[in-house]
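stuck on whats below:

***
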Amino acid sequence: MSAPETFESENGKAGRAAGFFRSRWQGTAPLDRLFWRDLVLVGTAINIAVSVLALILLGLKLPLALVLAVHFAPVPYNFFLTFAVWRTAEKSGGVKASLMTLGAVLWLMLVVVI
């Protein structure tokens, strides 16, 4: 497994992060890894952790605007992951890709509502 491609002018973590997002957006990351690891495992873990943090902040009686900002902070990342799965599945084709697209959309609805 090779490291993600980085921009020539970037070093370290910033370059790896850019490579991570670029590979997912361009559909070059493997669909199975994108769906199962990035979306289902990591995406769900991030949403659970942020929701717990928002509940803690609510319990500490911090301003509701702050609590809501924390709670909805991962929404752009959730949309990114869902559209990345969608774009990658379009390139892959097949029933499995279609099911992963459907799963990603259902996952998005679930994490945005909860």
Remarks:
- The chain has five helices and no strands.
- Residues 4-9 have pLDDT under 50 and may be disordered.
